[in-house]
Design brief:
Number of strands of chain C: 0
Oligomer: heterotrimer
Structural class of chain C: mainly alpha
Number of helices of chain C: 13
Distance between the termini of chain A: 15 Å
Radius of gyration of chain C: 24 Å
Order of helices and strands of chain A: HHHHHHHHHHH
Largest sheet of chain C: none
Helix content of chain A: 55-70%
Order of helices and strands of chain C: HHHHHHHHHHHHH
Strand content of chain C: under 5%
Largest interface: A-C, 55 and 58 residues
Strand content of chain A: under 5%
Chains: A mainly alpha, B alpha/beta, C mainly alpha
Number of helices of chain A: 11
Number of strands of chain A: 0
Distance between the termini of chain C: 8 Å
Shape of chain C: globular
């Protein structure tokens, strides 16, 4: 407790301590948003763009430096880097968006119900989430892929399920801090049913922090899928994915480091962009901060 | 209770606050917490500083110890024991604090570190300033705890603040403050956070230790009842300024400021008949950011006149009694008790 | 204190049980038959049936779970399909490597984050603070395997200072061991320090505004003592909690790092089991890692109580 007036005066003067290193919507935010837009667009239109096939191997042009035919050069099997990067973006981003969506829908619902209904439901949900969190996530993902097989669908589902605990936590925390506010009590006093309160009053206020977290989860998913593909246990070859390309580039580090570094750069910038945007939104939509 | 006759003050006062102002920058503009305050305190004497919340009394005490928040601006000078604190380098200040100049804070629950034992919080001061060995410091710490009235001090040395009651915690804080034989002790509302039953004990403890050690003391409070009979002199602060200052007995007997009169009248009297309404001073203290040109107390003063709203009354000094008012109460107003 | 330990222990055991159950259920996800997967498509139905009886695969699920659990409690994690070596033995042989890696990584991460966090908190909002916080934020977007590749390129390929892969055991040659562990533990530490630093920094900023810090200044204590004893100790609680939670990510990171740098640890064992479809080892490793993780979190909780006396006494 900081009851002294001196401390109060000090905090009144000090600027609010936010999340990331930016103040509201800085130039970094817009830059990040622009890159996200660009890469998502390129990935969506991958088939329509004038690119060589990402899987065509040109054995005469292996590890070739950038040229007119191959704008970013080729990898160790002679495949066009740019094409692989953009098609890899498509796969990585598809997983990155769909998997957290599972977490958002399932985890969000569980968290809201747990935070609103309390009691046994809450204990069960929190307990279940704790057990799931007892497993180091990568280890669990690896184990399940080993048993179920390696396809993009299974990968997306596993990562999605693994993201449920985090979304449950965020949703529950937001619900707990909102459920005691006056507007909920007012709705109840006016005779609204619990379901209506849940849908019309609570949900619209829990969605913003969940969406902010969703963007952060996309960033994490890109990394997790990247790690799995890097180990050869994620997106099955020959389909390109950034993580897989980095893994393949490992043996060419001496001859052509660009093969590993280009996908690394793309992945880094994309993850950073999602982190910047997500963090900014998180700071803006945190219901606990709004209560100050 | 009062010390030697007031007119035999020593040549140089122990503490001299000269024209000190403290401002804090805020989004709405600069906040003047302390406005051109000058005070003196002789060695061995007790000064009470009384004021409402926001009168600047806490900021003033922090200014003396140079413990202001980072963004505060201090102007004026503070002289203590032949040194000018406002011009001193941080290392010299650090050696002074805790040793010659000690502080007791308002809330012992927050001013004591919750994860360190109270023994270590006493011992660290002893070791820092007196250079004692750990065993000797521990022994002295036990003695100190006994002196402030904590039972079974050996056992309590290893305990943590949350294992003590509020009054006991404040005794510990006092023990820490007294540990290096300070020349001046500043107690900032030492009893405000405590139960009423415990308040008198703590104040008596402070008074007793002050006499025993011949220490100068500044007692800061919003409660005039606290300073009655426990201080040699009282300064009343309002809106960052000293508005009246006098030897304690004289202040209570013959106050000149309507504000002081209001404060004294607000003290509930034990011998008043039941259901006597409490007399409060109506209104609120002024906004420290937007200051009016006239007397700060004008909006609430029962004796307010046109001049009061236009210009600030200067601080008049006469035979040891200072006051700042255009319409002071007549001298020798109340009958002698 | 004992009451506190007993209380937490009572919570630990059901979680451990649930972990064994979940591990077993995941293992039973395998489509088709374990025996079939082991013998391959060429096996005769009789051979498959015989193996199924042998392995007890024809028994109901709950029976298999209980007998497996019974074996675990006796220390029998089964035997590897490929090599026949006991699973637990294989795990324990590789445990020291992973432990050394994670310990070095955690120590390095703390050594980086604590001084940085303190310096940032003391001058919060200043240029040093902004730069360091920015770097930390950016580093959060650089995953383990990328950092590993970068470090290998810089130190092993370009500068040729350190080996890219390989491991020298501590007993053999401690300098060689250090050289082979330097890049791997640095990779993991670089992944950990942003989170640790951010948490400690914001906790310290809050702590430095507490009254007891002003009191410590009023006592004339040395600045170093105020920062490292009065401010760091209360803030360290959050740090330890976060470090404990991060062990899960540290383990995941260790899997990647061991793979990239070819260290013979548990992570590499896990991957090898996956590549060779040795499900016995896979099951054992997953259980071991998960149970270990739960127990370590429990120990972190205990440590928390040691450091914060208020937590201990809350149960008295």
């Amino acid at each position: 407790m900081r009851t002294s007036k001196v401390a109060i005066a000090d905090t009144a003067i000090a600027p609010a301590e936010g999340g990331g290193p930016l103040a509201k919507f800085g130039w970094l935010f817009w830059l990040a948003l622009a890159w996200i837009g660009l890469i998502v667009l390129a990935a969506a239109l991958a088939d329509l763009l004038p690119l060589p096939s990402p899987t065509d191997m040109d054995m005469l042009e292996r590890r070739a430096p950038p040229s007119a035919a191959h704008w970013l050069g080729t990898d160790r099997l002679g495949r066009d880097m740019l094409a692989r990067l953009i098609h890899g973006a498509r796969i990585s981003l598809t997983v990155a968006i769909l998997a957290p969506l599972i977490g958002l829908l399932v985890g969000g619902a569980l968290g809201i119900l747990a935070g609103y209904c309390r009691g046994f439901l809450e204990t069960a949900v929190v307990g279940g989430v704790d057990v799931l969190l007892a497993f180091p996530p990568l280890v669990l993902a690896l184990a399940i892929t080993a048993y179920l097989g390696q396809t993009v669908a299974i990968l997306t589902s596993i990562i999605g399920i693994l993201s449920i605990p985090a979304f449950t936590r965020v949703a529950r925390a937001a619900t707990l801090s909102l459920a005691s506010r006056e507007f909920i009590l007012a709705a109840r006093a006016m005779g609204a049913t619990e379901v209506r309160i849940l849908l019309r009053e609570l949900l619209p206020n829990v969605i913003p922090p969940l969406m902010a977290f969703f963007l952060l989860a996309i960033a994490v998913t890109i990394v997790v899928e990247g790690a799995l593909s890097f180990l050869g246990l994620g997106v099955p070859p020959p389909a390109p994915s950034w993580g897989g390309m980095i893994g393949e580039g490992r043996e060419s580090l001496e001859a052509a480091p660009r093969i590993a570094f280009l996908p690394a750069l793309f992945m880094f910038v994309t993850v950073l962009s999602f982190n910047v945007v997500g963090d900014t939104l998180r700071v803006l939509t945190d219901p606990r901060q709004a209560a100050l | 209770m009062t010390a030697a006759a007031p007119e035999a003050a020593p040549a140089r006062p122990l503490l001299a606050i000269e024209g000190v102002s403290v401002t804090l920058p805020t989004p709405r503009g600069p906040l003047t917490a302390v406005d051109d305050v000058s005070l003196e305190l002789a060695a061995g004497r007790t000064l009470g500083i009384v004021g409402e919340s926001g009168s600047g009394k806490t900021m003033l005490s922090r200014a003396v110890a140079q413990l202001l928040p980072r963004r505060a601006r201090l102007s004026g000078a503070v002289r203590f024991a032949d040194q000018t604190l406002t011009a001193l380098d941080p290392e010299a200040l650090r050696r002074l604090r805790g040793r010659a100049l000690a502080f007791v804070f308002q809330d012992p629950m927050t001013s004591l570190n919750p994860v360190l034992s109270i023994g270590s919080q006493i011992i660290e001061t002893l070791r820092e300033h007196l250079g004692l060995e750990r065993a000797a410091a521990a022994r002295r710490a036990v003695e100190l705890l006994g002196e402030v009235g904590i039972p079974s001090p050996e056992q309590r040395l290893a305990q943590y603040p949350h294992q003590f009651s509020g009054g006991m915690r404040q005794r510990v804080a006092i023990a820490i403050a007294l540990s290096c034989e300070p020349k001046l002790l500043i107690a900032d509302e030492p009893t405000t956070a405590l139960d009423v039953t415990v308040q008198a004990q703590i104040l008596d403890l402070l008074a007793r230790e002050q006499r025993r050690r011949g220490m100068a003391m500044i007692l800061i409070t919003h409660d005039l009842g606290v300073v009655a009979g426990r201080t040699d002199e009282v300064a009343v602060m309002y809106a960052g300024r000293v508005v009246e200052r006098a030897p304690t007995a004289r202040l209570f007997r013959a106050m000149r400021m309507p504000y002081t009169q209001g404060l004294i009248a607000a003290i509930p009297k034990l011998d008043a008949p039941p259901h006597t309404p409490l007399k409060a001073i109506s209104g609120l203290p002024p906004d420290p950011i937007r200051r009016s040109p006239g007397c700060a107390f004008a909006p609430r003063c029962p004796l307010v006149g046109a001049r009061c709203r236009e210009s600030r009354p200067p601080l008049e000094t006469g035979d040891g009694h200072q006051f700042a008012c255009w319409h002071p109460l007549p001298a020798n107003a109340a009958a002698a008790p | 204190m004992l009451g506190f330990i007993a209380y937490r222990l009572a919570y630990l055991l059901p979680v451990l049980l649930a972990v064994t159950l979940l591990t077993f259920l995941i293992a039973s996800l395998l489509p088709g038959d374990l025996a079939h997967a082991m013998l391959g498509d060429q096996a005769t139905p009789e051979a498959v049936a015989a193996l199924r009886r042998d392995m007890g695969l024809d028994q109901p699920l709950w029976w298999r779970y209980l007998s497996w659990l019974g074996g675990i409690l006796k220390g029998d994690f089964g035997r590897s399909f490929r090599t026949g070596e006991p699973v637990l033995g294989a795990i324990l042989a590789r445990l020291p490597v992973s432990l050394e890696l994670m310990l070095l990584a955690e120590i390095t991460a703390l050594a980086i984050s604590i001084p940085l966090a303190i310096q940032c908190a003391v001058n919060s909002g200043g240029s040093f603070d902004r730069v360091v916080t920015g770097i930390a934020f950016a580093k959060l977007s650089l995953p383990n395997f990328m950092a590993a590749i970068l470090l290998i390129y810089v130190f092993a390929v370009a500068l040729r200072l350190l080996p890219a892969t390989g491991y020298t055991p501590l007993g053999e040659d401690w300098l060689g061991n250090f050289r082979s562990m330097l890049l791997p533990s640095l990779t993991l530490a670089l992944a950990e320090w942003p989170v640790l630093m951010r948490v400690l920094r914001s906790d310290m900023i809050a702590t430095l505004q507490e009254d007891y810090i002003t009191m410590a200044k009023a006592k004339g204590l040395k600045r170093r003592r105020i920062l490292f004893v009065h401010a760091l100790k209360p803030s360290s609680l959050t740090l330890i909690t976060v470090a404990g939670i991060n062990i899960g990510r540290l383990i995941g990171g260790a899997v990647i790092v061991e793979s990239v740098f070819a260290l013979p640890g548990i992570g590499r064992l896990l991957l090898a089991a996956i590549y060779t479809r040795d499900f016995m080892i896979l099951q054992g490793v997953v259980l071991f890692v998960a149970a270990g993780f739960v127990i370590v979190n429990f120990l972190v909780d205990m440590l928390y109580a040691v450091l914060d006396p208020r937590v201990r006494h809350a149960h008295q």
